[in-house]
Amino acid sequence: MSYQIAVLAGDGIGPEVMAEARKVLSAVEERFNLAIEYSEYDVGGAAIDNHGCPLPEVTLKGCETADAILFGSVGGPKWEHLPPNEQPERGALLPLRGHFELFCNIRPAKLHTGLEHMSPLRSDISAQGFDVLCVRELTGGIYFGKPKGRQGEGENEEAFDTMRYSRKEIRRIAKIAFEAAQGRRKKVTSVDKANVLACSVLWREVVEEVAADFPDVELEHIYIDNATMQLLRRPFDFDVMLCSNLFGDIISDEIAMLTGSMGLLSSVSLNSDGFGLYEPAGGSAPDIAGQGIANPVAQILSAALLLRHSLKLEQAAEAIEVAVAKALSDGYLTAELLPASERGNAKSTREMGDYIAQAV
Amino acid sequence: MSYQIAVLAGDGIGPEVMAEARKVLSAVEERFNLAIEYSEYDVGGAAIDNHGCPLPEVTLKGCETADAILFGSVGGPKWEHLPPNEQPERGALLPLRGHFELFCNIRPAKLHTGLEHMSPLRSDISAQGFDVLCVRELTGGIYFGKPKGRQGEGENEEAFDTMRYSRKEIRRIAKIAFEAAQGRRKKVTSVDKANVLACSVLWREVVEEVAADFPDVELEHIYIDNATMQLLRRPFDFDVMLCSNLFGDIISDEIAMLTGSMGLLSSVSLNSDGFGLYEPAGGSAPDIAGQGIANPVAQILSAALLLRHSLKLEQAAEAIEVAVAKALSDGYLTAELLPASERGNAKSTREMGDYIAQAV
Ligand SMILES: CC(C)[C@H](C(=O)O)[C@@H](O)C(=O)O
Ligand SMILES: CC(C)[C@H](C(=O)O)[C@@H](O)C(=O)O
User: Fold this and answer.
1) Is A90 in the pocket of ligand 1 (CB under 6 A)?
2) Which residues belong to any copy of the Isopropylmalate dehydrogenase-like domain (chains A, B) (predicted)?
3) Banded pLDDT at A162 (limits 50, 70, 90)
């Protein structure tokens, strides 16, 4: 069997960390005797420079013929002066999500043993560890709801956005959260603002209905403002957090920051056919791009998730995850994970990739 | 000159902490020879029990004849089964904000010297302290935008909310943020999601325009997801945070939790005539209500803010703030501010109130 991966490395550190992910994928291909074909396409700022827009037709077509998208990161100061619609992040990520109906975004955030000191939380809180999975609805809500625009003149000119959710949109993402919880600690925390939003009231109703089919999973509801707070005091009390598009944007970033090691986190965006986009949770980090010091682990783990979810190659995925765990426990770390005094021992982007590929 | 205050103690710990605020206000009246009249009205769950709705006409009329509202807190498990619209929080706070056009919400969050250990942040971060002022728009955005509701049938049934902002709504709240920054560290961080929301794009435009009138104040823009993260890593880099209604709900709660001492924080909601509602930032805390252990400081400081902003009694306000600072630095603390091993020294709600009234 042969597989097709569309590789969209993008901007900033994207190309550097992607090179290491490719190296690790090659090692996996060899070990498991797989035939994977890669097609590279421009996206984001690189695509603006080469094609005049952040998501060119050729990139979109290329993704359509692939089994999955391995995405790097997009954006940087060079393109920040552009109108919001044309900027790399909004102009590439949102249309990709919409076009492939990638309604389900999954972002795990776990505090790795030995890396507790990286968390910005007080030591007695981080010492208890945490392992939260954010399941975020990604193609609905206020991101895509119509109407969206402006009207009126002068000081009365107003802008408007529409938050909109149907029962079926809520149901399909809620199901995924409950299924995920069954394979974990069996608890779903649904995040909403049902004391203010009509969408959240419907959200609660449908989530309750879905919960009835999962009697082994505990369900709790929490307001977004309170969720933001409780994550700071007791992150270990949360297992799966089920969120609408906007609230998931906030919660997934908060939990990522709570680990303090964003360079280790990846994110999966899936549609109902198992087609998906796999990307590191951190951004394009233009401040450290080109220096060979970026952490490639998140990109490498994105590749593992791609093998698991879109190509159904569980063993190959695990081989990568085991190799990454080995690198980390062997003390193979990039600079940002080390205290200033130990930065002399930091590994480069390439050294990390080589070591992990070797371990595979 | 004589003043009228509408006192809405509400539910949970509301009445207990309000009693101490009244005690302190009496001491201030005596010291400064003021004549303040108080009228008490039911609100929230108490009003549901006595009048069948969380904001009875008599309460609203009473507030209309007053110079300001001193608010306790509303809500509790007893009323949680009610439909969202009729619940104490939504049914009382939102109509009060709307009716009096309290468009400006100000929530300070400061890490008190000596209470750094209360913060959930890592000690090297909290050791640097922080002092953030959240200026939140309170009568616009997705809270009040029309249309809001439901339509359709079966699985296609959908709910919708509208986020809506006009130039003038943005301008008036932005001005307040810049004015506040002038009296502080001269920096405004405007929180938005301009990479997704049309409202945020307009928000940025108007905030930039307002900034031009305040050349001495630095302006930066940050996305809500990134703001949630950066507050965890470097809260000390923020001075005034300017937020729309929904984002301000999230940010003000996050910064309150970052202090770890919610019982010390109060919140001001003002209209353009200086009329305002003053309340503690924490909730009704039904779990500790009636035990005489709740911290009355936030309610007492709310009274100080009322004297300052609505009654223009600066000296009286300061007298209260000085007395509170003295109590805290004298080690006069309620249980939740003490480590478990020192709870034996905890002061009761009443002891705190007596001590502060005495100090006035
Ligand atoms: C770039 C932006 C549009 C995007 C979002 O808000 O979804 C990003 O923050 C993310 O979470 O992937
Ligand atoms: C009770 C609720 C409607 C309210 C809000 O969201 O504004 C509360 O969270 C607050 O911040 O005062």
Assistant:
1) yes
2) 4-356
3) very high
Q: What is the DSSP letter of A360?
A: -
Which H or E run includes A167?
Answer: helix A167-182
* Alpha-carbon distance values, A1 to A33, A307, B183 (Å): 10, 13, 68
Pairing of strands A68-73, A104-110: unpaired
- How do A131-137 and A2-10 pair as beta strands? unpaired
Give per-residue pLDDT as tens, B108-146.
Answer: 999 988 899 999 999 999 999 999 999 999 999 999 999
CB A302 within 8 A of CB A9: no
**Contact residues, chain A, for B197 at CB < 8 Å:** 142, 148, 159, 161
CA–CA distance, A243 with A109 (Å, rounded to integer): 15
Minimal C-alpha gap between A261 and chain B (Å): 12
Give A87: exposed, middle or buried? Use CB within 10 Å, 0-12, 13-18, 19+.
buried
Count of CB atoms situated within 10 Å of the CB of B130:
21
Q: pLDDT tier at B14 (50, 70, 90 boundaries)?
A: very high
pTM: 0.96
Cβ distance B258 to A232 less than 8 Å, yes or no, reads yes
Contact B262, B284 (CB under 8 A): no
Q: How far is CA B214 from CA A348, B174, B354, in A?
A: 45, 11, 43
How far are the Cα atoms of A26, A221, A263, A265, B108 from residue A300, in angstroms, in the given order? 12, 34, 10, 10, 43
Residue contact A226–B253, C-beta within 8 A = yes
What is the spatial distance between Cα A300 and Cα A279, in angstroms, rounded to a whole number?
9
Amino acid occupying residue A78: K
Q: What is the largest CA-CA distance in chain B?
A: 66
With b for 16 or more beta-carbon neighbours within 10 A and e for fewer, the B322-345 pattern comes to ebbeebbeeebbbbbbbeeeeeee
The tens digit of pLDDT for each residue in A131-150 reads 999 999 999 999 999 999 99
Backbone angles phi, psi at B53, to 5 degrees: -155, 155
Query: Can you name the residues that pair with A224 across neighbouring β-strands?
Result: none
A311/A351 Cα distance (integer angstroms): 27
Q: What residues does A253 pair with on adjacent strands?
A: none
* Residue among B143, B158, B194 minimizing CB distance to A164: B158
First to last CA, chain B: 21
Q: Is residue B50 over pLDDT 90?
A: yes
Residue A329 CB coordination number (10 Å): 11
Alpha-carbon span B62 to A100, nearest angstrom = 56
Q: What is the largest CA-CA distance in chain A?
A: 66
Tell me the binding residues of B for substrate: 97, 107, 136, 225
- B228 in contact with A, Cβ within 8 Å: yes
Helix (H) or strand (E) holding A207: helix A198-212
Q: Tell me the catalytic residues of A.
A: 143, 193, 225, 249, 253
Residue A109 tokens, joined: 């955030």
